[in-house]
Amino acid sequence: MSADSPAKTILIAEDSSVILNLTRKILELQKYKIVLAKNGGEVMKQLENNPVDCVLMDINIPIKDGMQCTREIRAHADAKINALPVIAITGNANNYSMEQFREAGVTDYLPKPLDFDALVRVVRQYVS
Question: Which residue ranges does the record assign to the Response regulatory domain (predicted)?
């Protein structure tokens, strides 16, 4: 990333403050700007109010789960929002098939417990 390019912004949708804070620290060390959503109800508000480059979506967030949020992102009228890479983060990926993730519009997914090297690698892959 060149010094004059603006920092890329990642929305982290995660209700566990421990995971949220760790993830945020790791990504801030990589010079990303972070926007937070503590539940599915905040995801769209944040996306509509902030230019975001990528979404890290916990599948088990309250109010609206990550699958529902991802479907809403894909259905959004604004192309800047509906084309965003959505990386699902889930502790029970076995509950969903890759097929279901794709059907919801998930771009990629990371299992919990999070491997932070993989996190950085995957985010970098979609936010270059």
Answer: 9-127
